[in-house]
Design brief:
alpha/beta; Arc Repressor Mutant, subunit A; 13-stranded mixed sheet; two-stranded antiparallel sheet
């Protein structure tokens, strides 16, 4: 860290040493513009700036008309002529000229910031290179932690909380990294969110719109863009299986469960024949383009389903994207119950027929017995046969 401090301070020190009247002048006091100063050259050039506070070697040295600044530490805000900046730490906001409303707390915090504004850096080397291009694009960044957003040059509206969080970011914007080393490899990716120590560390330098919660992010994907990683889920047992429920996400990215209680519903009617739409669907086998393993899948094509039953597909921004399979499950249940009812009715009819057949068989058996009895009686009632003897 000392190397980085010397690399920045020594050239500036040499420059000031050559200026007329720049020899050591240890000042200590207040001015008529509500300024307070103490240290060699502290606030020495101020003529019109009001409400400034400078403590340390050359703190607020070049300030002329910037107001409401606070510089505490050797070289803090040495070139500043901006407004409402706070620099606490050796070389904090060292090269700031017209940037305003910046806060830098820590050794070398926001050293190279020149004209960018509304940044907050807390920690040694936090936002170290911010606005080193002098373009003034690197605004509204928040860095809390040693080396947080250290490499940022033109990125804007980034939030880094944790040592080395977003440390390699150069021009990426709208990123949020919370945790030590979170998103530390991002360089120019935008709109990423990483929460947890080392979260998002495996995403690469140019990922956009990715979320990593408690997970570094990994996998054989062509790109991590628009991907969400959540750690400690896969392979973990459910703590209370009796209360688990499927989780869904809607087009507004709201996550929740599908409530089934009557209190959440109205216009309740029996499904009846509505589920017969299923007979027009065309199940297919397929493989996902993103599946590097080429696993065979089974399902439906959303566009085909939309032609038959538009209410069974989900659209986003007018584009058909998926099928509401949970609704199809309910429709299948209805068709199953209808078929089950038919089977029960058929079984009842069969039982009735069997009962009638049994009755008929019993009747036929009884009739056969009676016929046999009558036949026996008839045989007994017949006169005995006479034998005729022929005499010679």
């Amino acid at each position: 860290m000392k190397t980085r401090i010397l690399m920045v301070i020594l050239p500036v020190l040499t420059c000031f040493a050559l200026l007329p009247g720049a020899q050591a002048q240890c000042v200590d006091g207040c001015d008529s513009l509500f300024g307070t100063f103490q240290g060699d050259g502290a606030l020495i050039s101020n003529t019109a700036g009001s409400g400034n506070t400078a403590f340390g070697w050359r703190s607020l040295f070049g300030n002329i008309d910037g107001s409401f600044n606070t510089g505490v530490g050797g070289g803090a805000l040495v070139l500043n002529n901006g407004t409402s900046n706070t620099a606490v730490g050796a070389a904090a906001l060292l090269l700031n000229t017209t940037g305003s409303q910046n806060v830098a707390v820590g050794t070398d915090a926001m050293v190279f910031n020149a004209v960018a504004s509304d940044n907050n850096a807390v920690g040694a080397f936090a936002l170290f290179n911010n606005d080193s291009s002098g373009s003034g694009l690197a605004n509204f960044n928040n860095a809390h932690g040693r080396g947080a957003l250290e490499g940022n040059i033109d990125g804007t509206e980034n939030n880094a909380f944790g040592d080395l969080a977003l440390t390699d970011n150069v021009s990426g914007s709208f990123n949020t990294a919370i945790g030590d080393d979170a998103l530390d490899g991002n360089v120019d990716g935008n709109s990423n969110v990483a929460i947890g120590d080392e979260a998002g560390t495996g995403l690469g330098p140019s990922v956009n719109n990715c979320i990593a919660i408690g997970a570094p992010g990994a996998g054989p994907f062509a790109t991590f863009d628009n991907t969400c990683f959540i750690g400690s889920i896969f392979g973990e047992p459910v703590s209370d299986p009796g209360t688990q429920a499927a989780v869904f996400v809607d087009q507004f990215n709201v996550v929740g469960i599908m409530n089934s209680s009557r209190q959440y519903k109205h216009d309740i009617q029996l499904m009846d024949k509505a589920s017969e739409t299923l007979y027009q669907l065309k199940p297919v086998t397929f493989k996902f383009n993103s599946d590097w393993k080429g696993t065979t899948q089974y399902g439906l094509i959303a566009e085909d389903v939309a032609e038959v039953a538009p209410e069974l597909v989900v659209r986003r921004n007018g584009e058909t994207i998926t099928v509401r399979y949970e609704q199809i499950n309910s429709m299948l249940l209805n068709e199953f119950l209808k078929e089950h009812k038919k089977v029960e009715e058929q079984q009842a009819s069969i039982r009735q027929l069997k009962s009638e057949m049994q009755t008929m068989v019993a009747q036929l058996t009884e009739q056969a017995a009676q016929i046999q009895k009558v036949s026996a009686q008839l045989e007994m009632s017949k006169p005995a046969a006479k034998v005729v003897v022929n005499k010679p």
